[in-house]
Amino acid sequence: MEEIQSQPDLYRSSSSSASSPTSRVPSSHFFYVRKPGSLRQPISFEDSPEWEDTPDVDLRMEDEVGGGDSINDATTTPVSPSLSKMNSGSMASPPVPEGGAGAGVVRKIAGASIAWKDLTVTMKGKRKYSDKVVKSSNGYAFPGTMTVIMGPAKSGKSTLLRALAGRLPPSAKMYGEVFVNGSKSHMPYGSYGFVERETQLIGSLTVREFLYYSALLQLPGFLFQKRSVVEDAIQAMSLSDYANKLIGGHCYMKGLRSGERRRVSIARELVMRPHILFIDEPLYYLDSVSALLMMVTLKKLASMGCTLVFTIYQSSTEVFGLFDRICLLSNGNTLFFGETLACLQHFSNAGFPCPIMQSPSDHFLRAINTDFDRIIAMCKNWQDDNGDFSAVNMDTAVAIRTLEATYKSSTDADSVETMILKLTEREGTQLKSKGKAGAATRVAVLTWRSLLVMSREWKYYWLRLILYMILTLSIGTLYSGLGHSLSSVATRVSAVFVFVSFASLLGIAGIPSLLKEIKIYRSEASNQHSGAFVFLLGQFLGSIPFLFLMSISSSLVFYFMVGLRDDFSLLMYFVLNFFMCLLVNEGLMLSIACIWRDVYWSTLTLISVHVIMMLAAGHFRIRNALPKPVWTYPFAYISFHTYSIEGLLENEYLGEVFAVGEVRSISGYQAIQGNYQISPDTNSKWRNMLVLLAMAFGYRLLVYVLLRFGLNKNVSGRLLLSHKKNNSSR
C-alpha cells in the first residue's frame, strides 16, 4: 500500500464551505481519496496531488443502453463543483471478470432511468414519534449504474426501495412523484425485477432446473427461447460452475453456500431481462468474501446496461468503491445523495472526516446511528492508545442535523434537483409489458416441478410412505387371524378405525413440506410468477401419484393381513376410499398450514382436530348416542373419519351373512349394528365416497380463498395503490 497523505483541506468541497467551516475538520484525520481520471480503478489509499479541474462530462444515456429503451435524448451534465472535482467516473468498478468457466457472450440489457422527487411515505405505527417513514427524498438512477440506499436499521431503506418499485403495502401512503424514463407511468409486468431480502429456493433442484422452471412460469414463447435466457442469467450472475449443482439446504443434500444462493435468487428475476432491478439487502448474511463477489457480479450486470437500485446496511472499503451513487438515510431523512466519493467529501465538510483505516460505510453509520450513543455512554471511561473511543464524539442527533443541514445548503442537493428536472422535462420511451405464460402452461409446469421435487426429497412423501408401511404392518400383525365369524365383527371394526385414524394422524409428517410449498408460492406470487389457482391445481395434480402409491401399498397390506372379504371389487373400493381419505387429509393440512404458516402451531392444531374427529367418528360411542350439540352437530358431520370408516364397513358387511347356530342367520348390517352405525342401503358407500371427494375439494377451496384474499390481496393492493398514485399525479 502506498503512502497515505493527510491533506484534509485539499479535498474540501467549495459547495459546502459556507455551512461547514474549515475549523470543524481536525487536521489529524485522513481521507479515502482517488486520483482524478482513474476510471475503472478500485478505490485505494493513494498519494493525491492537487486536483486538476475536470471538464464536465456529457452522459448520453442512449449510447449506454442502446436501442429503443433509452431514456431522454437530452444530455445531462454534472453541475456541482464538488461532483466535477471528484470526477463522476472515478468511482466506477474495478476490472470485472467477463465470466467464469463456460462464459459466453451475454446480451446487453436495455436499462431505464428512474427518478423520485419529494417522495414521502407514511405508515401508521411504523415509527414511535412519527408516521413518516421516508421524508421528502430526492434521487435518481441511470442505466448501467449501481445506486445504493444506505442507512442504519429502521432508517427507511427498504420502504424507499419498495416505494420506487410500487410494492408498498396497502396500509402505506406515498406522496411525491416517481418517474421512469421521464414519465409517471406504472412499471408493467416484466419491466422490473424485485428481489426480497429472504427468498425461498427449491433445494432439490439444480440451479439450471430452478431457473428454467422459473422462466417457464414467467415467460411466453418457445422452450428454446427460455433456455437461452436461462443461460444468459446464469452467466450474468457468474453461476456457470454451479449450474448443475443442487441448490441444497434440505435434508442430507449439500448444496450452495449463502452467496451462491443469493445470486440464484437474483438470477431468477433476470430471466425476464428487466430494465430496472431492485434488490433488498443483496449482502444479507454474507461474509466479506461472498459480499465482494456478489457486488463484483452486480457491477458486471450493471455494465450490461441494467439499472440497479438496492439497499445495504454497511460494506467493506472494497465494496464501497464499487458503488456509483449513494442515498444516505437516517430516520427517513436524506442526509446525502450523489457520487460515493462526494459523500466522503460531504462528511468532511460537515466536520466528520473519515479516519484512516476505517471503512467509509462504517464511518457513515457511526455518525448517524443513534444506537451508538448507548454504547458510548457505557464506554465513556474507556480510551484506547490513540485517544477517544470513537472518532465522532458529537451526539448522533446533532450529527444527523448537521449532516442534513449541510447537504440541503450544498450545491450537491441543487445538482440532484437539476438532474431530476432534466430527466423529467421530456418523456422518454414507455416501458412495455413482456407478456406472461398462459394459465395452462403454468399448471403444467407446477405439476411437473412438484412431481420432480416430491420424487427427490425423501422427507416429502417417501418418509411418509415408510411410516405408513410400518403402521400398516403393525396393525396387520396385531389384528391378523380374525376369521369371519360373528364374534370377530367388533374386532374388525376396531381394526378399520385404527387404520384410518392413525394413518390420517401420521399425515401430519408432511406439514414442513407443505409449509415450504406455501412459502415458495408466496415468493413467486409476490412477483406475479404464479397464482393461487394454478398453484393449488399444480400441487393437487402433483400429489395424486404419491398419495395413490401410499394408499394402494398400505391398503393391500392391511386388507390381506387382517383378512377382509376376498373380492377384487371390494378391494378396489377399499383402495379408492383410503385414497380419498388421504386427499381430504392433505387438503386439511394445507388449509391449516395456510392459516398458521408455522410448523409448531400447524402441528398442534392438526393433532387437536384429528383427536376431535376420532372421538366423533362413532367408534367410541355410536353416532346416534352422541350428544346432539357439538358432538353430532357439527363434529360428527365434518369428520372425514366418519365417512371413510362408514364406507369401508359398508363395503365389508353389506351383503354378508353370518350364521347364528345351525338354523338362524343374520345379515352383516344386523351384525354390525351394535358396534358401528351404517346404512342398510347398498349405494350408501358410494355416497360416502362422494362426500369425501367433496370435502377434498372443499378444503382446497378454503385454501384458495386464504391465498387469494390473503397474500394476493396484498399484492394486488400494492399494484393498485401504485397505479392510482401514478394516475392521480398525471
Concise account of the structure shown:
The protein contains 25 helices and 13 strands. By secondary structure, the chain is α/β, with parallel strands linked by helices.
Features:
730 residues; alpha/beta; 25 helices; 13 strands
Describe this structure in words.
Strand 12 (657-660) and strand 13 form a beta hairpin. This protein is 48% helix and 10% strand. The protein is built from 25 helices and 13 strands. The model is unreliable at 1-104 and 712-730 (pLDDT under 50). The protein has a 6-stranded mixed sheet, with helices on both faces. By secondary structure, the chain is of the alpha/beta class.
Q: Tally the helices: what do you get? A: 25
* Share of helical residues: 40-55%
| Secondary structure tally: strands | 13
Please state the overall shape, judged from the principal axes of the Cα atoms. Answer: elongated
Oligomer type: single chain
Which whole number gives the mean pLDDT?
A: 80
> The biggest beta sheet, please?
6 strands, mixed
Global Rg: 33 Å
Contiguous runs where pLDDT drops below 50 for at least 5 residues: 1-104, 712-730
Helices and strands, with pairings:
Blueprint: H1 61-65, H2 81-86, E1 114-122, E2 132-141, E3 146-150, H3 157-165, E4 173-180, E5 192-195, H4 207-218, H5 223-236, H6 258-270, E6 276-279, H7 288-303, E7 307-312, H8 317-320, E8 325-330, E9 333-339, H9 340-349, H10 360-368, H11 371-378, H12 396-408, H13 411-424, H14 439-456, H15 458-478, H16 489-506, H17 511-526, H18 532-562, H19 568-596, H20 599-615, E10 629-630, E11 633-634, H21 635-638, H22 640-653, E12 657-660, E13 664-667, H23 668-672, H24 684-708, H25 711-728
Parallel strand pairs: 3-7, 3-8, 5-6, 6-7, 10-11
Antiparallel strand pairs: 1-2, 1-4, 8-9, 12-13
